[in-house]
Amino acid sequence: MNALSHPFFLHAVLAGTAIAAAAGLVGYFLVLRAQVFTGDALSHTAFTGALAALAIGWDLRIGLFATTIGVAVLLGLLGRRSRADDVAIGSAFSWILGLGVFFLTLYTTSRSTADGNAGTSVLFGSIFGLSASAAWTAVVVAGVLCLAVLGLARPLLFASVDEAVAAARGVPVRLLGLGFLALVGACAAEATQAVGSLLLLGLLAAPAGAAQRLTDRPYRALALAAGLAVAEMWIGLGVAYAVPSMPPSFTILATATLVYAATYLPRPQPRRGAGSRTAYARTT
After folding, report:
1. H helix intervals, the chain
2. pTM of the prediction?
3. In this structure, what CATH number is given to the domain that contains residue 93?
């Protein structure tokens, strides 16, 4: 039977494709701006926000988006030039994680009807458990994130490569940095549904890191990061469907890791003569 004939798998593919595309686009700038540690901090924030929402009886997505976007912007305000620095992140890192454990305990002990697997679902994702409405909501949110990143791509690339010159040219570097961190927070909240907060960083960093190693052209790398993330999502979901004992979050991240590792393999270099003829042809 075709895998797409199963509603749970179709919903996972729909949501996963959109989430992966957004994660690839956001992740490229996250890697380019050397803010990967920010993504790590937001993965812990996602866990805390989701459990806080569940503990007070709200939809966990409210907690996810409110906390990840709020903390992302706060880290930007505490850092220099709207870039969260390691000191600001390190100061909040362990406190946020400890707060998440507190809310998990509060949720499981204060609510008699509490789902004991909620903490595990938040940590490792539950993409095969998405309903049709949740899947389409993920598509819409991820689509908005993709459009926002593409709309900011040109000035954000300028500010990421040479911040001082961009500021001198009138680019609102600080506001742009805060806006980008808000997008990172929203993407982290959305991607938690697919791979969970514990493995979230891999989906943001691995495809983007591989893309940067494969090409030094920014826009090509941006498209490649999104394409790799989507392909890795599809492969991971397919493997998880074929081997039910493997959780989809593991297969997705394992695929992303293997692709990133493959970029370190030796690649054939163009022959010197061929390269010289190509360079000559470009100049004539």
Report:
1. 7-32, 36-55, 60-78, 86-110, 118-124, 132-161, 163-168, 173-214, 218-242, 248-262, 272-283
2. 0.84
3. 1.10.3470.10
Q: Could you read off the pLDDT of 76-134 as tens digits, one per residue?
A: 887 665 566 666 676 676 777 778 778 877 877 776 455 556 666 777 777 888 888 88
Closest CA to 43 of 117, 125, 106: 125
Contact 29, 161 (CB under 8 A): no
- How far is CA 197 from each of CA 91, 118, 149, 239, 243, rounded to the nearest angstrom? 19, 12, 22, 21, 23
Q: Three-state DSSP class for 185?
A: helix
Rounded to an integer, what distance in angstroms lies between the CA atom of residue 205 and that of residue 24?
Answer: 8
For residues 255 and 162, what is the distance between their CA atoms, to the nearest angstrom? 33
Domains identified in the chain, total number: 1
d(CA 12, CA 15): 5
Which residues form the domain of 214? 3-283
